[in-house]
Amino acid sequence: MTFPVHRPRRLRRSAALRDLVRETRLSAAGLVYPMFACPGANVRTEIASMPGVCQQSPDRIVEECREVADLGIPAVLLFGLPERKDATGSEAASARGAVQRSTEAIRKAKLDLLVITDVCLCEYTDHGHCGVLEGGSVQNDPTLALLANAAVSHARAGADIVAPSDMMDGRVGAIRGALDERGFADVAILSYAAKYCSGFYGPFREAAQSAPQSGDRQGYQMDPANAREALREVALDLEEGADIVMVKPALAYLDVIQRVRERFDAPIAAYNVSGEFAMVKAAARNGWLDEKRAVLEILTAIQRAGASIIVTYHAKDAARWLKNC
Known about the structure:
Layout lengths: L14 H6 L10 E7 L6 E3 L7 E3 L1 H13 L4 E6 L17 H11 L5 E6 L12 E3 L2 E3 H18 L3 E4 L6 H11 L6 E8 L6 H7 L19 H13 L3 E5 L5 H10 L4 E5 L1 H12 L5 H15 L3 E4 L2 H9 L2
Parallel strand pairs: 1-3, 1-4, 1-12, 4-5, 5-8, 8-9, 9-10, 10-11, 11-12
Antiparallel strand pairs: 2-3, 6-7
Helix pairs in contact: 2-3, 3-4, 4-5, 7-8, 8-10
């Protein structure tokens, strides 16, 4: 029997050979660490469903940001919790909000970090929806001005990038226009362009205290069954001025990430969301899988699918592991 000339195993027989031919090279440079800012001082409250992740006051946010920067992670994504909630989420645009104060504190500390701020109303409204609620339905157009005002307040505080996650139609254009009119033309927009109505957001809603008080978000977040629709959403957001587009969640939507990467010549982000994080943490704590190996495999898969930017609660651990590889 004549054996085939081609033996793919030749390039797998040592770590040096495997490293030499590796197609996808994961690094901390493409990671973004999400953080939850809350009012007060010296507050640090761990989130039960997300081990190691906390709600923190701006002073404690800065402390952790020093660690993040030291690990070589280039950016943080800030979510905010308000002192009080109301029907229109008015505190989202407050100059004294937790996100705004945390952004200012990071800037004052002169940390080598990009600050990305989430722009949405769900954490700030007393009904838990991402926009103005009338008759049980979220009103698209009245919500746009509120989102734009929040984005401008983040830019004033020093945000490098604002990230609208609400899924209202036209919000990228509204935010771009407001930023440009107020002298923030250099502030970039990372749009949650293809954000699905997913069952993987549960732990986040505990962390951000943002669960809807009634109904659900199927009327504005995307149907998990649709992939072609994601391409339309991305195209619209890019036309309106988005600089970076995101697919969320990541693991159940690797095919969508790949389609977006193949279609568009723009930076692609993906969000390795709270439920995905919590599942790995729970399995690791029960001894059912090797956490390091599973996390690095997951992040590599997300990058392999086409995301050059990965938002993940695993960022600090992954950065440590990659540094020691």
